[in-house]
Amino acid sequence: MDRSSHHxxxxxxxxxxxxxxAVLLVAGCSSGSGGKKAEESGNEVSAGKAGTPRMxxxxxxxxxxxxxxxxxxxxxxxxxxxxxxxxxxxSSDPSGPNQSNLVxxxxxxxxxxxxxxxxxxxxxxAVVAQAEQAGIPVVxxxxxxxxxxxxxxxxxxxxxxxxxxxxxxxxxxxAGAKHTACVIMEQGHVALExxxxxxxxxxxxxxxxxxVNGTDMPSVKSTITAKLKxxxxxxxxxxxxxxxxxxxxQSIADAGGKAELATFDLNKDAVGAxxxxxxxxxxxxxxxxxxxxxxxxxxxxxxxxxxxGGGEAPVLTGPxxxxxxxxDKIAEFAAKGTR
Length: 339
Hints:
seven-stranded mixed β-sheet; Rossmann fold; alpha/beta; single chain
């Protein structure tokens, strides 16, 4: 797909995600873990409210089975699918080559649009190009803010992880932190690496990078505990996902309970931990909004030729900080599994 032929100007003001959020009028239906097998989820809800022909959108992520973060993204996608009369086919695999195969399956099935994450952009480059050559519009979301334009995607919805990491580092400075361990649960994941790099860039104290096996929570717990026992000068643990924050709470307790904890991303349990003071703050990138906008943008492109962000700028959904001062406003939505 020749992206240059679609754009009439380059000086387009970025779309503000908050404005797009005004269209979120449909509540997401419940979902379980996507796993590696593709599942049709758009037909599990009503036939749709849009008076447009039925279209099929494949959403293909790098989400690992059991990670509740992706349930939230999927709920947003399902809400948009219900509104837009879209058949949503969701699949996921944390392996770059396997995720690429899932995209190839979608191309072979001649879907009407593809929404994809680019956690391993090099693994996705060739198959994304095949989709575009086949005339299938592709949008990116959640990961790939540095790569979506290079790969010719129509739009991108998510958080700039470098900016988020830098904001996190400044927040650590404000908290008076001196030494943080930034816990990365998947080595080589571009978004996760960018988060910790951003923290290290602005945090005036010492930043240690701690790699853990994100698919093995007992191992995550023991690795963080061992790190804290080994180095008692660590006064803040930085986790990159809400489930890992909840595990880190246990690690901090096992290590003597001296370190504070802050995290990226939210779920219902993390909201409760912020309320109780076990987590000092979380960065919310609004995954529900990412899933919703990714599907809705493909419908808008198909039915009206619209480009979110003008096809030139990412639509940013974060970062926003959630702490004790505003957590009560978020709790209502977290209880529904949409924040």
